[in-house]
C-alpha cells in the first residue's frame, strides 16, 4: 500500500503548473482512484440501499465520465483565447463543486 500523503496525478507531467490547475487535477485524480480502485471492486457500501446512495453513485459516475472526456479534449487542444479559457474555467469550477457535494460518499 502506498503512503496516503503521496498523490500521483496521472494527468499532469513534471512541468510547472499553477496551483489552481493542480487543484483541479488532484481532486479528479482522487475521484478516478476511488472509482477505479475502490468503488468498482468493493461490495460496500450498498449503492442501491437508498435513493441518496443511488443518486450519489450516479453523480460519481457522471463526474468520472466527464473528467475522462475533458482530459482527452484538453490533451488534444492547443492554445486558446482568454474567453475560451474563462469558459473552461467556469465549467471546471462547476464540476469541482459537484465533486465536493458527493465527497461524503467516497469511502468503502
- SSE series: HHH
User: What number of structural domains do the residues give?
Assistant: 1
Please outline the major beta sheet. Answer: none
Q: Count of DSSP E strands? A: 0
Report the total helices. Answer: 3
Give the CA-based shape: globular
Q: Distance N terminus to C terminus?
A: 16 Å
Strand content: under 5%
Rg (CA only) = 15 Å
Low-confidence stretches: none
Please estimate the helix content: 55-70%
Outline of the structure:
The chain is mostly helical. It has three helices and no strands.
Describe the structure.
The chain is an all-alpha fold. It has one domain (19-105). 63% of the residues lie in helices and 0% in strands. The chain is built from three helices and no strands. The protein has helices at 19-39, 51-76, 82-102. The chain is globular and about 45 Å long.
Keywords for this entry:
108 residues, 3 helices
Fold topology:
Elements: H1 19-39, H2 51-76, H3 82-102
